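Sorry to interrupt, but I need a hand with the structure work. Could you write out one complete protein record for me, on any chain you like? Just paste the record in under my message, thanks.

. . .
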Amino acid sequence: MGKNMIVAQSGGPSPVINNTLRGIVETARQMDEIDTVYGGWHGIEGVLKEELINLSAQCPEEIALLRTTPAAGSIGTCRYKLKDHQNEDFDRIIEIFKAHNIGYFVYIGGNDSMDTANKVANVARERGLDVCGIGGPKTIDNDVGDSEFQLIDHTPGYGSTARYWSNYVQMANEENNGSCPADPVLVLQAMGRKIGYIPAAARLADPNREMPLQIYLAERKVSIDQIRHNVNEMLKEHGRAILVVSEGLEIDGLEIPEEFKVRDSFGHVMLSSSKITVAQMLTNALNDKEKFKLAVKGAARCNVSGTHQRNDIIHASNVDLTEAYYVGQKAALLAAGGEHGYMASILRADRENYTVEYGKAPLPEVANSERHFPKAWISECGTDVTDEFIKYARPLIGDNWVSVPIIDGRIRLAKLNMSKEMFADQKLDAYIPQADRS
């Protein structure tokens, strides 16, 4: 009989994160090296609290339905960061591993999650435990890895959010085209903090550049005067304009005051959750008749997309879903093979005829890495992306719609058994994670 595995999730979810989880569980069921797979309820916090869901005992049909169940409601996620000085937390994790015969720890998430996976597994090994630590990549931002795309070509979750934006901009363009006499300027805000892969995906809606579309990435700082000039030039030519802006876009002359920003436990600014957004500030500035006059009659309006960018299974990419599953499968295979200290990875095998292979990237190289949008993929004018980006991103969004099971008009989502009997027996005293103590 093998040792047990804990799999947990961290950070913002994605449309395909549960398919990575499914890949891990279904593959582990076939491995003699892995006995029971437990899910940490709400990430590393659930591990600390000894809240471990038995995933191996779940109904196989429900596990299969994780394919088209988006976000992270299955086993939950968290934004709890393990910091080096939190010795009690690390001690507690070691106690959990010992109490439940854990030999494998897989953490699904982004940059900070890979750091957590690396720290936890290394501490366990330093304490004499034979624990294999593996990372499962996840982030809609596509910012895990290196800018040369050698560690990982793209992360599961990005392709689906890119597809969402491709579809969304097409529909927004139809409305803008119809309502432009009253609302000639439409400002759309995309997620991604200070990484431009998501707003860049707006160009996939219009690869031949037929729409009056401008894209402003956080990597290219701009002034409010430049934007006003760009907008009026487009209004003079087309009579309307659509602007897609990064939520982390810095606009000279239009800064968000610090007191209006909301931060998560990692210290990251939650830009879409802040008290005022870049899109709203920009829209207000374009409608400020004392300082600016639009080249045509009417006003600017804005739409700030929320979390549906990362939980909309209807707009998910079939390519992304498939790759997310095989990344989970690769993570389980790495664990069973004892290949400690790696993140499962997607590598592009053929750039002309899109195919991928699944490999591994050293966790220390990935942990806390941050891939930036290549400067070479930003147009010289700064309001567009190049055809090289389109070539990179187009295969990721796929072609066909996802087949989502419907019963009585409602999406049939996975329903894991969350009864008390499905949780591992708690063998240790109750524990409050260090950062949660007042």
